What we know:
By secondary structure, the chain is of the alpha+beta class. It is 36% helix and 15% strand. The protein folds into 3 domains: 2-49, Uridine Diphospho-n-acetylenolpyruvylglucosamine Reductase, domain 3 (2-Layer Sandwich); 61-292, FAD-linked oxidases, C-terminal domain (Vanillyl-alcohol Oxidase, Chain A, domain 3); 315-402, Vanillyl-alcohol Oxidase, Chain A, domain 4 (Orthogonal Bundle). The strands form 2 sheets. Strands 4, 5, 6, 7, 8, 9, 10 and 11 form an 8-stranded antiparallel sheet that branches. The protein has a 3-stranded antiparallel sheet with strand order 2-1-3, with no helix packed on it. Strand 1 (2-4) and strand 2 form a beta hairpin.
Amino acid sequence: MEVVLADGTIVRTGMGALNDSVCWPLFRGGYGPTYESMFSQSNFGVVTKLSLWASPSPEGFMMCRVDVENESDLAPLIDTFRALLLRDAIQNHPLIGNLPRELVKRGPRSQFYPGSDAIPDARLKELQAELGIGFWSARFGLYGPQSIIESNFARCQAAFTTALPTATLTGRAFYPPPGQAYLNPTDIPAEFRTVETGTPSLMALKAVQYRGLDGGHVSFSPILPADGAAAFKFYLAAKALCTSYGFDYFGGLHLYARHLTMINMMYFDRQNDKERQDTNRLFVELVKLAREQGYSEYRAHIDYMDLVAEQYDFNGGSLMRMNERVKDALDPRGILSPGKQGIWPERYRDGKGGEVERVKEGVNGAEAGKKQVQIASEKEDQVEGGKEADSNQWWRKVAQRLK
Length: 403
């Protein structure tokens, strides 16, 4: 990475710390500590350059899907996938979705259920039969020469036949046209050109209209172990909370060999005050539920960054105290994104606890942020002379604009 620090210093990490480095994008380490993750989800610097490793075009690609009949099939589905991932039968990570996640691809929620409450289980079973799909479905890709793809697909078939005899596994393979050694995404029909082919899409944006044309969403994204029983237990508890607030559990579960990113999307109508308030309350309850079971989020909406950061409480929050020490050393004036990921500069910390409480009470995040800047401005007013006095004027202008 190349990073600009708050004082204007330009730093290159890893092998990039050598002038005219040849291996900067080729070796992730370097000499001494590595700092790349330090500038991810932080406010310690501005990343101006970074290298990404791309995968070469494969000799072939198979788009795979597995559907399972029952809600309780989630546990064996996860465990079966985990074994396949650990043994490299699958080269990318499966994405598991439930029935409501499938509905959004087919139209607004009102098309399937007229009520404002969560779609009842009985109605979900009716929709499942009408659409001819599983309660849970998963998508994944296989890559390589035809012989390797067919071998790995056979391994997947054997695994699901053993663990989930009622599962339906399908696959559609694509290979290069004659005279071409490798497959290009443009060789694949558009309907199969998913993210597994490296093709971006805006299709997911349609989901925000699930409950209304002027829709919004908040995602709850805890990290769980890649364990079927643990995931199903948490799913049932999270679904019950969602139902109590009138929301469907809308799951997109990204499964890796050793962890599960269990994303729950909460869609709401931005014109509906009750739905907006209930979304906030539900999110706070889900954070509490996850923490009780030993989990927490790996990302958060800006309004909830302090709340999520508060969950990382080992040794009295020693990680956050270290983050604050790094912040104060690199950015003592708190110039860069104050409060991002819950990391506040020293001048803002007097109001930090109140920020979390305001979020829990459902106060608008902008109002909470305004209060933080006001506190910082008041502290600045107590400092006189030199550059600090100039800084005071700047912060007062920011606070005035927010008012």
